[in-house]
Structures are given as structure tokens and as C-alpha cells.
């Protein structure tokens, strides 16, 4: 995607808009940064090889334009001291990041994107709205608690019967949004840690699907017999994304659960853990199907796989990095 000069330019302005929104000192400047981010992402969605990209870009533009109008209305209302303006502003930011129950546009847009565009939508596009949401946390405390519980349940239950990989990953992203919002309730530093690890784990999964050109569950099953090492890497990456110990994705969830327990948010931890267990169910369904539905006559080819590509090796190292964290923790103490 970034080999095209125009795409590199739009990606640069997208990053600049995100930085502008996060570092702004007024809501109007933050709105300008979000609009620059929006207008830079729409050309990246458009693709001549994907017939659904135009529909996805239109859905994304209409949803984000509605949220931007709500931000302007809320910002002007805050200057005049109107009640519930913080709730309106928080709702607009929650719409922009695709948190439940304002999530309906997220799976529909994700279904029309390529995997590289999906990486941006599920990672970078959540950063600026979530940082801006931290400024209104105190006024909208109960709203955030409700959104955390709703996002955890929707992200878990919504992906159970999905056969399209992009929809499944979009519901997984909604579930991780609940974790990030709960981390943001504790501290911004904890949110940064969780967001960074989530970006790494989700990018490894999306790049694997992009490499395999897999968009449906059957694509993984039909190509599973080609390389058993790739199926193993996918298995490890999905377990890391689901937060199963001792993989890398477990570390920020471990820290978040501890901080929630210390801060008397045990009821939030209960919903988050239950949602994660359901997420692991459909992650395991992906990997077990790819392992167990291999043609027996082709299994002799698995012994011939002696080397892994550099991409697969990098994915494996990133996801088993969590094995070292508890060891280093105990060595420091």
C-alpha cells in the first residue's frame, strides 16, 4: 500500500492529524486534527481491486462526519456551560472509535477493507479519540463503565458465529476496546502499555492473513496443508491476542486485572475476563480447523518444512516475548 507515493502522503497526513488531535490545547484544534485524520484515511480505503471499498469509505465518512458534528456541538455547548455537553462529547468520541453500543458501523466498514487498511482502522484510528476521551473521564464516569461492560459482551458474543475473518477481527477489536477503556480509567500509562501490545499482536495476525490472502474461514482450511509452521505461528498469535498466558498479549491484561482489583473495579474485571474467554473460543476454532482438517495424504510434506520466513520468525518472537517478562520481573525484585 505504501509503495504508491500518494498513499504514503495520505498516511503521513493521517499520522499528523492524530498527533495534532492528541497534542491540541482546545477542542476546536482537536476537531481539526480528527478531521485531517478522517480525510486522510478515506483515500487509503479506496482501492481499484476491491469492489466494496467505495461502499466502506462512504459508510466510514458518514459515521465519522456525524461524530465530528457532535464534537463541534458539544464543544460549543461547553463554552456556554450547557449541561450534558460532556456526555455528548464522549458519545461522539465513542462513535469514532467504534465502541459498543455505537459499534454497528465498525464490522460493516471492516468487511470492505483490505488487511492493511484494517490494521490502520483497528489500531491507529482508536488512538486519538481514546486520548481525547481521557479528558472527560471524570464527568462521564458512569457512561464509561457502561461502555466497558457493553463492549466486552458485544465483542465476545458478536464474533462467535462469524465466518468472515475481517468481521471476526473487528468484534475482537471491540472487545479489546473495553480493555483499553478500563485501563484508561486507571491511568494513561497503563492504557499506553495495553495499546502498544495490542497493536503488535493484532498487526501480526492481520499481516498473516494478508500474506495468505485469507478473508473467510474456508481460506484458512483450504491452505492449512501448505505449511504447518505457518499454522503454528497463527495459533500462537491468536492465543497472544486473546491474552492466554504466557504469551505477550497476557502481560497487559495481567497488569490491568491487578490494577482493577486494587482500584475496586472487580466487577469490571469479571466482565472483561468472561469476554476474553469467549474470544478465545472462536480464536481456537480458527486454529483447530486449520490443524485438524488437513488432508492426511499431504502430511508427509510437513517434514520438508525446515525453514521459516523472516516474517513468520518475527511474529513468533513478538508473541513469545511475554515468556521473558515474568522472569525479568522476578529478577528485578
From TrEMBL:
InterPro entries: Complex_I_Subunit_2, NADH_UbQ_OxRdtase_chain2, ND/Mrp_TM. Pfam families: Proton_antipo_M. It is found in: Mitochondrion inner membrane. Residues 24-78, 80-278 form the NADH:quinone oxidoreductase/Mrp antiporter transmembrane domain. It is a multi-pass membrane protein. The keyword Cell cycle does not apply. GO terms for molecular function: NADH dehydrogenase (ubiquinone) activity. Signal peptide: none annotated. Keywords: Electron transport, Membrane, Mitochondrion, Mitochondrion inner membrane, NAD, Respiratory chain, Translocase, Transmembrane, Transmembrane helix, Transport, Ubiquinone. It is an enzyme of class 7 (translocase). GO terms for cellular component: mitochondrial inner membrane. Its EC number is 7.1.1.2. It catalyses: a ubiquinone + NADH + 5 H(+)(in) = a ubiquinol + NAD(+) + 4 H(+)(out). The chain crosses the membrane at residues 65-95, 102-121, 141-161, 192-211, 232-255, 267-288, 309-332. One of its GO terms (biological process) is mitochondrial electron transport, NADH to ubiquinone. Core subunit of the mitochondrial membrane respiratory chain NADH dehydrogenase (Complex I) which catalyzes electron transfer from NADH through the respiratory chain, using ubiquinone as an electron acceptor. Essential for the catalytic activity and assembly of complex I. Core subunit of the mitochondrial membrane respiratory chain NADH dehydrogenase (Complex I) that is believed to belong to the minimal assembly required for catalysis. Complex I functions in the transfer of electrons from NADH to the respiratory chain. The immediate electron acceptor for the enzyme is believed to be ubiquinone. Belongs to the complex I subunit 2 family. This is NADH-ubiquinone oxidoreductase chain 2. It comes from Harpiosquilla harpax. The lineage of its organism: Eukaryota, Metazoa, Ecdysozoa, Arthropoda, Crustacea.
